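Methods — Computational structure assignment.
A single polypeptide chain was analysed. Its primary sequence is given first, followed by the predicted tertiary structure written as structure tokens.
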Amino acid sequence: MEHAKSDEPVSKGRGAFGKMSRRSLAVSLNIRAKVQQRNLIDQAAARLGRSRSEFMLEAACQRAEDVLLDQAFFTVEASTFTQLQKLLVRPLPPTDRLRRLIKAKAPWEK
């Protein structure tokens, strides 16, 4: 495996027009863990048929997404907030469109 300095990404592929795409750049992440933590991670990764790195990266990215989504803050007009509160108390009946939306995967799950 190639290693790079933190400001020098390693390319694993090229995007359109032969230029490196942001998605294809790989960087090295290094962490320290206790033996028990490593063993726990290895055991879970093995159960899923994944490498330690794959397991840890997937778990860390999922947690990062959860944190960022939970921290989202937005403001709305008072009238919009009142409408939202009414819908939360007395939701509209489900429609086919809503059922399809609920079944659809989020963009980061595709």
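Note: Residues 1-30 form one domain.
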